[in-house]
Amino acid sequence: MTEHSIAQLQEQMASGEMTARTIAEDYLRRIAEIDQAGPTLNAVIEVNPEVLDIADRLDRERASSGPRGPLHGIPILLKDNIDTNDRMQTTAGSLALAGHIADQDATVAARLRAAGAVILGKTNLSEWANFRSNHSTSGWSSRGGQTRNPYALDRNPCGSSSGSGVAVAANLCAAAVGTETDGSIICPSQTCGIVGIKPTLGLVSRAGIIPIAHSQDTAGPMARSVADAAVLLAALAGPDPRDPITLRGEPDLDPQLDRDGLQGARIGIARNFFGFSPRVDAIMEECIKTLADLGAQIIDPVEVAHAKEINDTETEVLLYEFQADLNAYLASQGPTALVRSLADVIAFNEAHADRVMPYFGQELMQMAGAKGPLTEEQYLQALATNHRLARTEGIDATLEQNSLDAIVEPSGGPAWLTDYIAGDHYTGGTSTPAAVAGYPSITVPAGYVYGLPVGLTFTGPAWSELKLIRYAYAFEQATRVRQPPQFLTSVRL
User: How far apart (Å, rounded) are the C-alpha atoms in residues 99 and 102?
Assistant: First the structure.
């Protein structure tokens, strides 16, 4: 099945060559052949049983009154921590929530429906968005099993938006929605060779998304191109009374996709994120040359201070907020929810340990369950420290001291072998400062190490998505390094 951009799919529907129904049928066939059989990627945890009916309705609407916009009839997959009030479950990959049907759509799901998108199904993820254990295996959930990297099936897809990243890379959908607390969009996007946008906190509503932590959680687009990711982000973004933080944002996201978009931009090279891999470093040096050739003013080196110091206080904040936020989410659910609190989840996991915890435990959940309310001084101090180190003395200081428009760093290292004994072993990562600050980042395919993708990340201040999209697009169009996966059983050396 040929990869098509969102714009190409719209052209095919406008010409009558394709319809929303035939496009949906093609992706359903692809899921059956590639995800459920063949390489068995295990990226899609559930297919929407109403998808063809939805597509038919949208085809009739197009014929009678024209398309609603660029997403009309376009099949989109959602991560399985995003509520949909339909016949699909929302479980965060956990058997503790098996059978749970949300009482209403998450705002991002509702916005996609309003834009005319076809919600194709739900994607697998690292269970509870990778906030269960320090020894977890990304891409594994007790409900969905293990998602596999399409470039080398024995390699990990990273997480927690594992299924979304793999599904996009393997052409199981036009694009997908992931969520990130720290790295969960950026890492699987770069590891699967696609574009991922982690928006500013407050640009996209968190309402109806199973939470980790309200100070860092956000949904965002994952796509095969910057243009497709920008279209999807524009549909997701906007104010929402269900999530008051969105009322402070600037939701105008009409992207200016310009091949000369880097001309005159001051780009800082964050050298403190280099050095974890000579091969990745070599790719980054070529990327820097490209940025300069495209007219960017390169400020090299710069340093994002405190990048490693944030880890302890970040964990403290996440533990406190996970207990409070998950308890609030579960308490609000209807009669299909089997658990009503974090304590219930912990008890369920213990009672079903043979199926839920065959490879790793739930020590993060237990640590979160031992925390007090969000009024405790320990939490308030940790949160203030996070914002000081990540924002004021971190990204903000780097941008201001060097008069930068954006910071560039490697997105991470190539995919590691999936290992149920040792768990994840990340080979470099740079997502934490932007995640803790609540600032936007975009990863773009940059090259390959032994056939495994690696990405380049653009990071900017709050609400700088349009700038970052412009820079990422110019880089993408000049390099065009992305190649579709070949579903190799292992790395070809």
Answer: 10
**How far apart, in Å, are the Cα atoms of 38 and each of 71, 187, 203?**
29, 25, 38
DSSP state of 248: G
Active site residue 94: no
Number of CB atoms found within 10 A of residue 271's CB: 15
Stated length of the chain = 493
Tens digits of residue pLDDT in 150-177? 999 999 999 999 999 999 999 999 999 9
Residue 79: active-site member: yes
Full-prediction pTM beyond 0.90?
Answer: yes
- Distance separating alpha carbons of residues 160 and 431, to the nearest angstrom: 13
CA 287/CA 158 separation, integer angstroms: 23
228-236 average pLDDT score: 97
Question: What angle do the packed helices 226-236 and 6-15 form, to 10 degrees?
Answer: 80
Q: What is the pLDDT of residues 92-119, one digit of tens each?
A: 999 999 999 999 999 999 999 999 999 9
Domain segments of the chain: what residues?
6-479
Contact 156, 117 (CB under 8 A): no
Residue 121 and residue 54: Cα distance in Å, rounded? 12
Q: On the CB side of 260, how many CA atoms lie within 13 Å of its CA?
A: 2
Helix (H, G, I), strand (E, B) or coil at 399: helix
Contact yes or no for 477/292 (Cβ under 8 A): no
**CA dist 55 → 1, 118, 237, 297 (Å):** 19, 6, 23, 47
Q: Which member of 160, 164, 189, 411 is catalytic?
A: 160
Six token digits for residue 415: 């995919």
**Which H or E element spans position 83?**
none
Tokens matching residue 57: 């309705």
Catalytic residue (one of 79, 122, 198, 467): 79
Chain-centroid distance of CA 483 in Å reads: 20
Residue 454: φ, ψ to 5°: -135, 155
**Domain 6-479 indexed as CATH 3.90.1300.10:** yes
Distance CA 36, CA 43 (A): 9
Confidence of residue 251 (pLDDT cuts 50, 70, 90): low
d(CA 206, CA 82): 9
First-residue to last-residue Cα distance in the chain: 27
The answer to whether 84 touches 119, Cβ cutoff 8 Å, is yes
Contact criterion met (CB below 8 Å) for 273 and 281? no
Active-site annotation holder among 126, 133, 161, 184: 184
d(Cα 6, Cα 478) in Å, to the nearest integer? 20
